[in-house]
Amino acid sequence: MSTMLEDTTVAPAQGEAQTQEAAIAASPKPARKLAIKVENVSRTYNIKIDKKAKKEGKESKLLTALGGVSLEVEEGELFGLLGPNGAGKTTLIKIMTTLLAPSVGVAMVDGLDVVKEATEVRRRINMVSGGETSGYGILTVRENLWVWSQFYGLDSKVARQRIDELLKIVELEDKAGALVSGLSTGQRQRMNFCRGFVTDPKVLFLDEPTLGLDVHAARIVRDFTQTWMKQNPDRTVLLTTHYMAEADSLCDRIAIIDHGAVLACDTPSNLKRMLQKQPVFEIGVAGLNDGQLAALPRIPGVVRVTSESREGGSGYNLKFIIETEPVIGAVVSEITAQGGSILSLQKNEPTLEDVFIKLVGRSLSAEDKEK
Amino acid sequence: MVEKATGWRLFRKTVWGRAYPRIIGLSREPSWLFFEVVIPAIGLLAYLFIYKFLGGGSTDRTQTDILGLVILGGAAVTYWLNILWMMASQLYWDKQEGLLELFILSPTSLMAILLGMSIGGLVMATIRASAVMIFGIIVFSIQFSLAGILPALAAFLITMFALYGLGMMLSTVFLLWGRAAWQVSLALTEPIYALSGMYSPLNALKNPVLVAAAGIVPISLGLDAIRQLLLPSLFDGSPFSGVLNPWLEVGILFAAGVVFNIAAYILVKRVEWLAKVKASLSLRWQ
User: Of A29, A95, B14, B45, which sits most exposed with the smallest number of CB within 10 A?
Assistant: First the structure.
């Protein structure tokens, strides 16, 4: 079990607006051509209600998935989009890939308007989503990739050559002649990954590409993405992921998004530097009940607290982000005053996860476990 | 960047790409031969024996021509089932599988995807229909008019133009109707057997309103025209007559084909608009 010891449904934490401004200001001035430019994009959905609710006088609701998002991604960047479920990541990706029109604002990909020049944009992009089931089970892996390449107008000979190269890279060459219906989930995802690259896109959108992959397969996908970027410096990748370590190691810059708004946007190291003035401590405790745990965030000087059950169920590991180091003394005093016992205490270097917790109010890993 | 075809070349590549899984699929699952050819042929046999029995087992020309009429109807059933289950419902299943989103994401036209589906489906259905025809011709010694073969082939092609135009249109309509697609397909299977004159001449319906209603389904008029062209002695007024002159029927089918294809194009644009602006259709969770 893992919980956030604060009301996470409330508005963004104090100072976040300033943090966002500061982070955007800290972003490097675009020196190269912009691959993606999103300006003040909002997207609302009209949630229809059934006849019964209508009779009761209820009206359809307007759900805001994105509220005035602005982003700039340079050509050649591997850009990460981090956010909890429902933060607006998928909506933003769907707008950038021409699948959705923004309600307000403008989105440009490779200098082209995603609404007015959708077909031209589509020629230059591709997208791979984690867990997608694309493909025809009755075809072989090679045939399936060829079929998708035809929808982008690739010459068949060129397509087959690229397919064989890609299958080799993702270690799927021995399955090239196997039927798609016989592939495991991981193999299927690696095939989907090839589908994204086979069309040689200028901008590639990877939506949770390593979702459900085993460690080995995920590493292949990450390594290839990095290699591809190095070999093709004019190509751009926009990646969404639930895995902080993945975002940290792969991305040149990261935008943290929640409730349809960008909370921060910077390089992973700059984002972590945001927390350097705010120490992160991890304390193992036992003997505290839920009510006592819930009181900990109210200790003066505590910015955020998350809790996670210790292995074996004996107590909790509490992660504290505090304003200044001396605050930890008050935290320890409070825990012991409540009758809890300290099992361990260590100071951690801030991680991307800590930055995420500070900005969003909860951890992605906690969200995964709850699911 | 790798060179990519645009315009007509992209359209052609897409059509072939989308037709490929259907065409190659025939060789991947030999079981289709049993389910798609043998089983329907047994169903057809039942009708053939009934007609044979009613004819008192005589071997005159009218008797064999009537069996020929039934066999042509049996072959036509194949195309109608293909339209319902592999065309009309297809975009809906594609949406459920997440493929529709990827189609829209690609630079190609949805019309090319639909045309590829049609051609693939047409090849599948033709193989099955041919098997039914060959079976009937050999087992029941059916003789078609040699002079009528080429005109009947022309009538067949125009019928397919109209029929698959209707299929492309229905594909988008079913997508807009969402979950009702399965039930609509079921509802349109059996009644069409009765209305379209699959196993009896269309004129046997007698009621002009019913005949006109049946005429909306291209396979009805097409079948009537092909029967008149291949079995002229049976349709010279004794015992049967065609609904209209076969070439007038072909003309109507051509006009219907144009209308269905234009309607399909308009509906495809509507689907894309709904997907993009209303955020419906292309997303799996909606």
Answer: A29
